[in-house]
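Field: COMPLEX_INPUT
Field: COMPONENT_COUNT = two
Field: RESIDUE_TOTAL = 398
Field: MODE = joint
Values follow.
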Amino acid sequence: MNDELILNLIDKLAKLPGVGPKSATRIAYFLLDAPTSFTNELSSAIIDAKTHIVVCSNCGNTSSTEVCYICSNPKRAENVLLVVEEPRDLIAIEKTHEYFGKYLVLGGALNPMAGIKAEHLRINLLMKQVADPKVEEVILATNPNVEGEVTASYIARMLAPMDLRVTRIATGLPMGADLEFADEVTLGKAIEKRQEFGV
Amino acid sequence: MNDELILNLIDKLAKLPGVGPKSATRIAYFLLDAPTSFTNELSSAIIDAKTHIVVCSNCGNTSSTEVCYICSNPKRAENVLLVVEEPRDLIAIEKTHEYFGKYLVLGGALNPMAGIKAEHLRINLLMKQVADPKVEEVILATNPNVEGEVTASYIARMLAPMDLRVTRIATGLPMGADLEFADEVTLGKAIEKRQEFGV
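Field: COMPLEX_OUTPUT
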């Protein structure tokens, strides 16, 4: 019975993570009040990102180029590879300014209950990367929760026969937390204090 | 140094009310993972609402037609007019299913500190509406905070010489609260228990 256009906008906004019906209503009216330049930019930003962003063929990060800005940066150390679940975890690590090596973005964590098995993650891409003799260390930076720990164990076991140092970020992070929401100091500390991974 | 397209999207999302940099990052990656159909729909919903929504010439509500769906509904009572600050307050009232009359959306509240004076509100539209002899009662439903109370007093004083019942929604709502975030039961009760406005 309300205006269809506004209801439709509220309905779409309410599907975003962390946005309930009341926040969606607030955002919708904010957008109606905002300058047209802003709403056009927001709308274009969504479409542009969606259209042009691909998965980096080298590390699994999101990128607007075939190989992402980290993989194509010659200044990044090639002897260390940091494994994360999602691109947003990579962003969280980058913000600490404590890590200067390369990444491997798995695209999730093992979760048999939800049907997420090894073949759904970028394990093949990881194995391809570690086959490079320049790689000396693999840092496992999956989330410190059940799925992340299982995934770290799984990868550590796969890498055990290889001549690699396999480490896990320090559990300065509280268990059960989400890596992307950790503060930068804690996260930086966790990288700095990483220890040998005991299988 | 991060991918420009993603940074741009996060930057735009972080400007929305209630969305900080971390929520914006989460929403951005959610959008990158979402089906293209959804991102296209969201983007279109923003542009469509922004392009086609106008202010109802009769009551000040947002509408995709020159006269809004409430003003053009012949079943709505014409003897009572409920005055709110913003269209989202109107939506909150509608959700209570306790009110069947018409509305007047002021477009804000008096706030001399922020430079919002009577001429910035739709007081003229209100006076035009109450000039209709069919109107018997004006319910003042501005927010129960300083600006809303001042606005209610101002309007009550303007309407005092006229042959009208002027009421204020009951203060079942806690003072300092935002009307749009009140739960529907409390808000419905507040309309039901409205009392004569003492200037």
